[in-house]
Amino acid sequence: MSEDLITVTRPSLPDLEKLQPLLEEIWKSGRLTNGGRFHEELEARLCDYLGVEYLSLFTNGTIALVTALQAMGVTGEVITTPYTFAATPHALLWNKLKPVFVDIEPDGFNMDASKIEAAITPETTAILPVHCYGTPANVSEIQRIADLHGLHVIYDAAHAFAVRHKHSSLLDAGDISVLSFHATKVFNTFEGGALILKDKETKQRVDYLKNFGFANETTVVAPGINGKMNEFQAALGLLQLDKIDEDILARRRVYRKYQAALAGIAGLKLMDEPLDTQWNYSYCPVLVQDEFPVSRDELYDDFRERRILVRRYFYPLVSDFPMYFDSSAFYKCASSVAERILCLPIYSDLSEQDFARIIECLNDVVDKSTGRYRGKE
C-alpha cells in the first residue's frame, strides 16, 4: 500500500461539532448571503484581531484585488513584480491596465524598491507590490516614491494575514491591502478574501462595488460585481479565527524543525525568518543551490515520486506567461530565484511521521549522489 499523500500546505479544518449549530442557524434564518449576521460578525472580529479600522469581506482574494483597483480609479500602467502568483497581474488585465514589471531584491523575494522610479512613466498611476511568503516589502521606501510621484499603492498581501512589522500591522501600508482566505492560506474560509481600507468612504464604495453597485433595492451607483462572501464562508472563518494563534504557533514549530534539519544539508538554503516581524509562517521556501547534488527540478521529481507534493512557488515567472512576455525584458534576480525555489510542506498538523518522510527524501538524494543511498528498495 502506498504512503499517504503529503501536500505543500493544507487548510486547518474547523471542529465539525461547532460548525453544525452555525449551519443550522444559517438555514433557519433563510439568509445565506448578502451581509448576514455571520458576515457582519466576521468583519468586526477580523478588524479587532488584525488591528485595522475598516475591512470588507469578499468571496475570494482575486475578486477583492480586481475591486480594489476599481475603487482607487487606477488607470494606465501599474508597476508590479514578476515573482508572484498569476492572480496579481491577471487582476490588472481584467481592469484593462498594463503591468510593468520590476525585478526583485538580490537577497529576497519582494520587489526591489530601488528599481521602481526608473519604471515610472507619464502613464503610471499605481504600484502593486507583493508581501511574498508574508515577508514585508520595503513599505517605507515604496510609500516615499509613491508620495513623490502621486501614485496609489495597493498591496497584494495574500500571504500576509496577521503579520506585524516593526510593532504595527503590515496591512496598514499603502492605500489598500488585499488578503486571500483560500484553503491553502494560514487563515482560510475555504475560498474567500478581504480588503483592508483606510477610511469609511472607501469602505462604502467597496461595499457597493462588490454587490453589483447597489446602494439600496432600487438605486445602482456604480458598475459593480458580485464579490460578496456568503454566510457559510463567514461561519467557517469565525471558527478558524478562534484557533488562529494556535495554528500559527504550530506552523512556527514546524518551520524551526526545518531550520534544524536542513542546517546539516549543504546546498539547501531555507529562508531566514524576517527581522523585526511577527511572521505567520505561511510558506517554507528553500533555495536549491549549485552545491546540492541534483537540480531543483530533479529534487522536485524525487519528492513527487514519493507522494510528497512540494511546489515551485513561483515558477515560471508571470512575466514569462504569453500574455505578459516581452523578449527585451530580463529580470535577473527573479529568474534566478524562480529556477531554484522549492516550497516544502508546512501546515499546523504536519505529523512527525510525515516530517520524517520529507527529511528522509532529502537525505536519500544526498546519499545517493555519494554512493550511500538509503532509499527504499
Summarize the structure.
It is built from twelve helices and 15 strands. It has two domains: 16-242, 3-Layer(aba) Sandwich (Aspartate Aminotransferase, domain 2), CATH 3.40.640.10; 244-369, Aspartate Aminotransferase, domain 1.
Features:
single chain; about 375 residues; alpha/beta; Aspartate Aminotransferase, domain 2; Aspartate Aminotransferase, domain 1; 2 domains; 7-stranded mixed beta sheet; 3-stranded antiparallel beta sheet; about 35% helix; globular; disordered C terminus
Explain what the structure shows.
A seven-stranded mixed β-sheet has the order 2-10-9-6-5-3-4, with helices on both faces. Helix 1 (16-29) packs antiparallel against helix 8 (231-242), helix 2 runs parallel beside helix 8 and helix 3 packs across helix 7. Strand 3, helix 4 and strand 4 form a beta-alpha-beta unit. It is an alpha/beta fold. It folds into two domains: 16-242, Type I PLP-dependent aspartate aminotransferase-like (Major domain) (Aspartate Aminotransferase, domain 2, 3-Layer(aba) Sandwich); 244-369, Aspartate Aminotransferase, domain 1. It is built from twelve helices and 15 strands. Pfam families: DegT_DnrJ_EryC1. InterPro entries: DegT/StrS_aminotransferase (IPR000653). GO terms for molecular function: transaminase activity.
